[in-house]
Amino acid sequence: MRPQILLFGDSITQQSFRSGGWGAAVADIYSRKVDVVLRGYGGYNTRWALFLLHHIFPLVSATPPVAVTIFFGANDAALLGGTGKKQHVPVNEYKENLRRIVQHIKNLSRNTLVVLITPPPIDQQGRREFARSQYGDKASESPDRTNEVTGAYAEECVNLAKELGLPSINLWSKMQETEGWQKKFLSDGLHLTPEGNAVVSQEVVKIFDEAGFSDLPYDFPQHSEIDGENPEKAFLQQCAAV
Amino acid sequence: MRPQILLFGDSITQQSFRSGGWGAAVADIYSRKVDVVLRGYGGYNTRWALFLLHHIFPLVSATPPVAVTIFFGANDAALLGGTGKKQHVPVNEYKENLRRIVQHIKNLSRNTLVVLITPPPIDQQGRREFARSQYGDKASESPDRTNEVTGAYAEECVNLAKELGLPSINLWSKMQETEGWQKKFLSDGLHLTPEGNAVVSQEVVKIFDEAGFSDLPYDFPQHSEIDGENPEKAFLQQCAAV
């Protein structure tokens, strides 16, 4: 059994295996070392994520994941007055829901590396343009999300990581450090372009590598180690313990 | 437990989660329905793949994969006189090795859909250019692979699929139907460009869809089915059986 990394989140996780996606990039970087398990649920907030906890992370699991990324907040931060109001979760509840998710995973396995990722920033102009491209004149004039409100969720996500001593990625801040982040990193004011995906995979891999994941062994001999005349030798050496 | 699709092959499978890769595309298309498990081994031929069979497909597995793609031959077809001679496997042995792989998987589970994929065609000029870019004047003048020889392996792969009544993808033929396949589909005369990856994912998905994979259920409610006031309702309905 290879170690597993589980990606738990909303659409930004669900879509992370599209071309240029951050999840596929992580899977590629640790190929032959780790399996990446995709558990992304488009449109979900942390309140709904709680319903999935015992299904995705059963407490009787024989082999808990070595790492979990928890990447929610983009929907929790939807405004009560906008088209995503059903998804809205108050910021304090968001933080407590995240805490329950972390605690559940830590109950499963204290050694699992849990990484909290904040929602990305919001490009309100991009959201408006996207709404108009979808609904034309019928597009709502009130914003579904604002960058400022999403920023408050990002802050609580990072605060919780500090409280619990977990690594975190403040994507909301990080992306805004780059000139032109609005169009460079976001495709519709919210979801990620390939460049935006690259920011996530770089930050995630940085944390995983600090935890030693790049030193994990390959699951079978590299072909350069195989003697064409006596292939069994390399396999006997490396597969005996598998 | 979600159903699993396992991708078993050489570097063209191992690299299939790179940007634009066919494996990631399959994972994306069936996201929330199926887990795609990557078992690609760069440089491997079918002779070496046999050493992995019992590790990758243990006979005691409680949940065998619903589908397996078997995608070898690019290294088996390396010429005895070239730089990849260590990887060479005679074409008859290649066919019998493939047969053993299929039989092992079918012993594990008769219901597993096994798909045989032939190696892609070889662009010999592309191979020469690649060798020169790597080794300059020291690059070997004798080809490591030829399109004709690889074609013989592709033919035996398809023949075996017919004998065993399995679906197959003749990538060697399929790609050569397109004008300019040499540079359009191959990055170094052998490995796949994003366009080449797209050919594979389209053909694989065609077979999976014919087997009904697109009708597999989502693993949890779509967010549109969740009532914001009573979210538990959707989860009680859909998670009771999970």
Automatic annotation (TrEMBL), chains A, B:
Stretch list, region Disordered: 127-148
Gene3D superfamilies, per the entry: SGNH hydrolase
Domain of life (superkingdom): Eukaryota
Biased composition (Basic and acidic residues): 138-147
Family annotation (CDD domains): Isoamyl_acetate_hydrolase_like
Family according to the record: Belongs to the 'GDSL' lipolytic enzyme family.
The protein, known as: GDSL esterase/lipase
Organism: Rehmannia glutinosa
